[in-house]
Amino acid sequence: MDTRASLSILLLLFGVSQASPLTELLRVFVSEPEPLDITTRILESNNGSSEVLIEADLVFPKTRNALNCFNNNCFWKKNSNNIVEIPYIVSGEFSYNNKLVIANAMSTFHSKTCIRFVARSTQSDYISIENKDGCYSSLGRTGGKQVVSLNRQGCVYHGIVQHELNHALGFYHEQTRSDRDEYVKINWENMSPDMAYNFQKQNTNNQNTPYDYGSIMHYGRTAFSIQPGLETITPIPDETVEIGQRQGMSNTDILRINKLYGC
């Protein structure tokens, strides 16, 4: 889908007047690079959140004892056309520009996968995107109203929106993969002992895909560090590999969605 078509869809989606300046729309699509990596931004935004969070931005499950998303119960369902429709609503607290960022982040799912975020009508299971006290989501489909929090002051960025939506689809953080010790070194000495639980390995379904340093779901190097600049995660064997990127979903992120949901 070319840029002109994408802009037209967004105009229809949010009821924007045709008189709206084109430069304002382009500013959303060609935005200045985010100065902070995703993890730093999320941690700063979630500081003081009223939610009990695991791994920085996963809502602690109230109905199960641990994070668990490796069976069909936490995945969204396909319809008869082999499309995975995820009903959603967006809070009226978000501005016009906020909504454009959210819609643009969703458009990659629409163009590259069989996931479709659709406006909720009467569906009982749906995502409610709200301006709450941080950037966070539950893991996978939980049933009923499922809040994805994107605080207007620190979370409405392309990469963060895609990061949280991936959690809602059932994806963990990359560095908690069951085989992560082959690819990254966790520097336990550089974090407070009471933060170590955030780096617990999960029983992940890696879908025969390679470890992805460039995943939108990967922490940055200094996540939960006891002081600025100290690395808690170091790639191996090449320490210069970039991690914690903020631009958007990688090709492997997209591949995994398609494999998991049978696109």
Automatic annotation (TrEMBL):
Q: Provide the Peptidase M12A domain boundaries.
A: 65-263
Q: Does the keyword Disulfide bond apply?
A: yes
EC number(s) given by UniProt = 3.4.24.-
Which residues bind Zn(2+) per the record? H163, H167, H173
**Main EC class of this protein?**
hydrolase
Pfam families with a match to the protein in the record: Astacin
InterPro entries, per the entry: MetalloPept_cat_dom_sf (IPR024079), Peptidase_M12A (IPR001506), Peptidase_Metallo (IPR006026), ZnMP_hatching_enz (IPR034039)
Q: Which GO terms describe its biological process?
A: proteolysis
Q: Which residues cross the membrane?
A: none
> Which segment of the chain is annotated as a signal peptide?
1-19
The molecule here is called Metalloendopeptidase
- Native species: Sinocyclocheilus anshuiensis
Taxonomic lineage is: Eukaryota, Metazoa, Chordata, Craniata, Vertebrata
